[in-house]
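From the methods appendix. Each design record in this collection lists the tokenized structure first, followed by the designed amino acid sequence. Records were kept in a plain field format so they could be parsed without special tools. The example shown here is representative of the layout used throughout.

RECORD:
FOLD TOKENS (267 positions):
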């Protein structure tokens, strides 16, 4: 009888143990944490940027009948400038799964310098000067501000966004052109070569990468190629006696590359 009771107790223990263990496992294990939400790039943002503007070329050279003038090489100039740039941007993004489309505008300072070249002691110019030696001066006003209005198309991998961008670029001043003048020894200007101005409007294209540091703060590295109606024009002086056929080829507009960082606040 004792053996039978012992066997019953042992069997009951064997049957109850897995049930108890399963019950303890069910009650003791916390539920797995929910996955973190995927960051959304959609919405309005505003921010600041700073960096460098590089490779802005300005050229001027005498053309036409100046080819027969011994001092013509002295009248040519070429400049390739780099400068600080900084400003602000604002924009809006829409997100469709991993595809992000948006529009962005910016307005920026850029520290390009005016070009002012003076050559003194020139002998008699091939057209009437009066009192040599003569002074030649070439001026080219630089932009101090530029802006863009661009579309953006990107691929989002959670908090990282790779994007391409392109749109309209514009200068922060009215259009302008270079000017070449001659002044004689008496201080009298006897020739003034001018040409058409640029439109002050062009294009910008580039790309970049953004990282959402928090749900509101976004940092960026970006490259832009900017061309604001950059081309050569011919400067002429139709007024000065004997100056017909003499001319200068001069750059107008701006063309440069921008490498910059930015920080934005997303609302």
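DESIGN:
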């Amino acid at each position: 009888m004792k053996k039978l009771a012992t066997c019953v107790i042992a069997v009951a223990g064997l049957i109850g143990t897995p049930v108890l263990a399963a019950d303890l496992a069910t009650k003791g294990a916390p539920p797995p944490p929910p996955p973190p939400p995927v960051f959304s790039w959609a919405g309005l943002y505003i921010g600041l940027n700073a960096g460098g503007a590089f490779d802005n070329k300005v050229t001027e050279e005498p053309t036409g009948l100046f080819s027969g003038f011994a001092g013509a090489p002295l009248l040519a100039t070429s400049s390739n400038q780099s400068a600080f740039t900084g400003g602000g941007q604002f924009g809006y993004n829409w997100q469709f799964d991993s595809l992000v489309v948006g529009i962005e505008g910016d307005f920026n300072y850029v520290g390009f310098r005016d070009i002012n070249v003076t050559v003194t002691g020139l002998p008699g110019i091939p057209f009437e000067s009066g009192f040599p030696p003569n002074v030649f001066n070439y001026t080219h006003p630089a932009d101090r501000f530029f802006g863009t209005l661009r579309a953006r198309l990107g691929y989002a991998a959670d908090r990282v966004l790779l994007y391409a961008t392109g749109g309209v670029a514009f200068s922060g001043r009215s259009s302008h052109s270079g000017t070449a003048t001659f002044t004689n020894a008496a201080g009298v200007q006897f020739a003034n070569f001018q040409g058409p101005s640029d439109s002050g409007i062009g294009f910008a294209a580039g790309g970049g990468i953004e990282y959402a540091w928090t749900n509101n703060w976004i940092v960026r590295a970006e490259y832009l190629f900017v061309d604001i109606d950059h081309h050569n024009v011919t400067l002429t002086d139709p007024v000065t006696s004997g100056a017909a056929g003499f001319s200068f080829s001069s750059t107008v507009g701006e063309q440069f590359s921008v490498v910059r960082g930015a920080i934005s606040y997303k609302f």
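APPENDIX NOTE: The chain has one domain: 40-266.
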